[in-house]
Every structure is written in C-alpha cells, then in structure tokens.
Design goal:
This protein has about 200 residues and is α+β, with helices and mostly antiparallel strands. Strands 3, 4, 5, 6, 7, 8, 9, 10 and 11 form a nine-stranded antiparallel beta sheet that branches. Strands 1-2 form a two-stranded antiparallel sheet. The radius of gyration is 16 Å and the shape is globular. It has five helices and eleven strands. It has one domain.
Length: about 200
C-alpha cells in the first residue's frame, strides 16, 4: 500500500477494498445510488467503535492485525484532539478513513469525504437498529455549528436507562463543505454515572 499526504487529513492509504454492508444492505444501497463512502464509514464505525465497546485492547489488536498503519504522531494529535491514544489510517471503498482510540476510551472514525445526507441516514439507521433490541435510546436535538469551513451538523444519542451507572454516547458530526479536512466524524464513549434528574 502506498501512503500519501493530503492537507491536514494527514496520511491516508491508497488501495482497493471491498464494499462492506450496513445491515447486509451495503451493495444494494450502493446500487441504489447511495454514496459507498458513507456506507463504508458507518460500517467501519460499527465494526470498530461499536463492536469493541469497552474492549479497547481487542480493537487495537484487530486494527494492528489487519495491517492498518498508525498515523504519525505529529498528525495523530488532530484526530485524538490532543489526548493520548492511537490512530490508524484505513482504506475502504476507495475512501480514506482514520480510526482513533483515545486512552480515555473514546473511539472515533473520521472520513475525509462522504456525502453528508447519506452518512446521516445510515448512522441514524444504525443507532435505530440497536435501539430495536430494547436498549433505551434518547436522541438529543440536532445542532448546527458555524465554522470557518461552513456549517457542521451535530447529532447525538444516549443509550441505556437513565439510572444506569454506565450509558453509551453515540455522536455524529457532518459537513458538506469541500474545504473541510473532515466531512464526517462519529464517536462512541461511555458515560459513567446516572443521568441527572
């Protein structure tokens, strides 16, 4: 695999990768005209952050075992937001992604480019599918933040009973700006302590 540098998005990999599916519908969704990068982004989030919830060592082992290269430390700070942790450059569906795992347990997936509406559609469908298992899920009102690259839409959910000692936070930030270094970022973290009354 060949590594190249692309603006602040840093080191990304060139290579071929098969289209993975979201809920078994990836190929059908791509054939229906949905952005394959959006499908790959949400699937990568599911396969890394969600499937390895509270298992950071297993996630590190899986990513290292697949041969994904670490993002160099001088560039990793952007994806880790200055916190200690690790990052990997991942290529799926001809798009470049970064998976970040902070030492505090926050897991994030970044896409340099992916169609905003499709990312939001598939992310919300993924969260809804987990809520269908009976896990209490609360969606917070969406927010639109103004940035130097244009508006960023922020969507967030909390899963788990309010009285639970540990709940799950799932969040998505997206933009359609072509000047943004990242068009989509999805995070997963644990909230410790019951919800305030």
């Amino acid at each position: 695999m060949k590594i190249f540098r692309r603006s602040c998005f840093s080191y990304v990999l060139l290579g071929a990768a098969g289209l993975i599916s979201i809920g078994g519908m990836g190929r059908a969704a791509a054939a229906a005209g949905f952005d394959p990068r959006a499908i790959a982004f949400v699937n990568l989030y599911r396969d890394t952050c969600m499937d390895h919830l509270n298992k950071p060592a297993a996630l590190r082992s899986d990513l290292d075992g697949q041969g994904w290269q670490s993002v160099p430390s001088q560039d990793a700070s952007f994806f880790l937001q200055g916190a200690p942790g690790r990052t990997w450059a991942v290529t799926k569906s001809a798009e470049n992604f970064v998976v970040a795992l902070r030492d505090d347990g926050i897991c994030a997936v970044f896409a340099h480019s992916a169609k905003q509406g499709d990312v939001e559609l598939f992310f919300n469908a993924l969260v809804k599918s987990t809520a269908a298992t009976g896990l209490p899920t609360e969606r917070h009102p969406d927010k639109v933040l103004q940035t130097s690259n244009g508006p960023v839409r922020y969507t967030s959910y909390v899963q788990g009973k309010p009285e639970s000692k540990v709940r799950i936070s799932l969040a998505l930030s997206t933009t359609s700006s072509t000047t943004a270094n990242v068009q989509a970022m999805a995070t997963l973290s644990l909230i410790r302590g019951a919800a305030p009354k």
